[in-house]
């Protein structure tokens, strides 16, 4: 008979296993919610001004949460070299993404970004010597296929700007690898706050350099405040996902971005998915479920709980 302590440890281990995947599900949902509310607010506003305003609210949200949770003493972690490197990569990825999005069809950009999990997995193999079995790679390829089916890009608009989209995927993958190197003592809220601050500074600078300021309406400010809230949630959950969960399990769930984007488009912009997109959605969902259910560590922990 197992002791209560052993059973408690097994449950705790199982909870930790689920923490990473659940955080990634939440992160992808938050990012899509942030982009959706931002898109609803962009009419008449310059792009970088919109991003900067969203960054203001994301930063304000982060500062408030750091104070409310009593993590003020952890703020010096903002200047940790790994935190700064991770968040600088975040800013670079955002700028590449925006430039690509302005010059390419959105479906092409979304499809290209689906190589991000591949970058993360290969980076983990190189940086952390993490073992990658055949199953995670198959799931990655199936998830990639499903995401491309949802986006179904065309050959129109493909140009040198596609390199910016590829750069976004690469920078995003390296960002998540670097995030694993952030010391455990530095709270996730502090890392997310640092990301919000750096992106705010970068987008505000771009706005001042290339755009003319437009005064937003009250409705636009309200929408951007919601967008900033979701953006901060995405920063925090994405960092937490890669810090708490196995990369081989967490990375493929990034493909849920395409799934949430379909739902958001149908709900807010009346874009109804076709049969190919629906098939891609099913493939992404089944792939995500298979990653968790058939992961050897999960099966072992589940058996321990039953025992």
Question: Short summary of the structure?
Answer:
The chain contains 13 helices and no strands.
Describe the structure.
This protein has one domain (18-306). The protein is 77% helix and 0% strand. The chain is built from 13 helices and no strands. It has helices at residues 4-41, 47-68, 81-103, 106-113, 116-127, 134-151, 162-179, 188-210, 218-244, 247-250, 256-268, 275-293, 296-306. Helix 2 crosses helix 9 (218-244) and helix 5 (116-127) packs across helix 7 (162-179). The longest helix is centred in the N-terminal third of the chain and has 38 residues, at 4-41. Residues 1-11 and 298-307 have low confidence and may be disordered. It is found in: Membrane. This is DMT family transporter. Keywords: Membrane, Transmembrane, Transmembrane helix. Residues 20-150 form the EamA domain.
């Amino acid at each position: 008979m197992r002791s209560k302590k052993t059973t408690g440890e097994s449950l705790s281990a199982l909870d930790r296993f689920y923490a990473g995947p659940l955080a990634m599900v939440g992160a992808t949902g938050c990012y899509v919610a942030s982009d959706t509310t931002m898109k609803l607010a962009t009419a008449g506003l310059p792009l970088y001004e919109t991003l900067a305003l969203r960054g203001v609210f994301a930063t304000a949200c982060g500062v408030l949460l750091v104070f409310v949770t009593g993590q003020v003493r952890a703020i010096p972690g903002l200047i940790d070299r790994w935190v700064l490197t991770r968040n600088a990569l975040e800013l670079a990825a955002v700028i590449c993404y925006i430039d690509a999005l302005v010059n390419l069809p959105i479906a092409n950009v979304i499809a290209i970004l689906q190589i991000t999990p591949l970058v993360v997995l290969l980076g983990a193999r190189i940086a952390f010597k993490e073992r990658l079995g055949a199953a995670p790679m198959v799931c990655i390829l199936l998830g990639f296929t499903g995401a491309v089916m949802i986006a179904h890009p065309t050959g129109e608009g493909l140009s040198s700007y596609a390199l910016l989209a590829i750069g976004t995927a690469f920078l995003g993958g390296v960002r998540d690898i670097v995030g694993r190197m952030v010391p455990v003592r530095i709270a996730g809220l502090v890392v997310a706050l640092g990301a919000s601050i750096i992106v705010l500074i970068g987008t505000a600078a771009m706005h001042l350099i290339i755009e003319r300021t437009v005064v937003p309406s009250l409705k636009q400010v309200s929408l951007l405040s919601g967008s900033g809230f979701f953006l901060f949630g995405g920063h925090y959950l994405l960092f937490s996902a890669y810090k708490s969960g196995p990369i081989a399990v967490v990375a493929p769930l990034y493909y849920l971005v395409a799934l949430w984007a379909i739902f958001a488009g149908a709900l807010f912009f009346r874009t109804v998915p076709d049969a190919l997109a629906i098939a891609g959605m099913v493939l992404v969902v089944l792939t995500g479920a298979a990653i968790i259910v058939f992961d050897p560590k999960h099966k072992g922990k589940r058996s321990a709980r039953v025992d």
